[in-house]
């Protein structure tokens, strides 16, 4: 039984493609041919976004398996917008660079509509987690063979 419709899979793929193309145009030329050495925070941001866009390429083929990268995108941008940009905006202290970043981050409003939340709930919240330690051969529900 298909848990997520084919249409929803294509919508997810379109989201991954938007990220790949967008960051491919804006970010990757500077990664491939940097115009200057990056400062610490600038380098961290560029490398994290580069890794994110590379993982989104996998989302084109495996849209459900790569959902955690979209959830990460939703979380970090939501946190940044609410904890950094919103307080500055309310205090009327939003400078040009922060405003530009906020506008770039607002694309995240699309993500909650793309994520199949029923699938996420079933596979990430309701499903039992992986075991934390090795199991005894006699205690894993399979009878041990006498040798």
Structural description of this entry:
The protein has 147 residues and is an all-alpha fold. It has one domain (6-128). It has seven helices and no strands. It starts with 5 loop residues before the first helix and ends in a 21-residue tail after the last helix. The model has no long low-confidence stretch (mean pLDDT 91).
Q: What topology emerges from the helices and strands here?
A:
Blueprint: H1 6-26, H2 28-32, H3 40-61, H4 67-90, H5 96-105, H6 111-114, H7 117-126
Helix pairs in contact: 1-3, 4-5
Strand content: under 5%
Give the structural class.
Answer: mainly alpha
Number of helices: 7
Mean pLDDT: 91
C-alpha Rg, in Å? 21 Å
Largest sheet: none
- Percent of residues in helical segments? 55-70%
H/E series: HHHHHHH
Give the beta-strand count: 0
Low-pLDDT segments, ≥5 res: none
Overall tally of structural domains: 1
Distance N to C terminus: 41 Å
- Large-scale geometry: globular
Protein traits:
147 residues, mainly alpha, 7 helices, 65% helix, 0% strand, globular
Brief account:
The protein is mainly α.
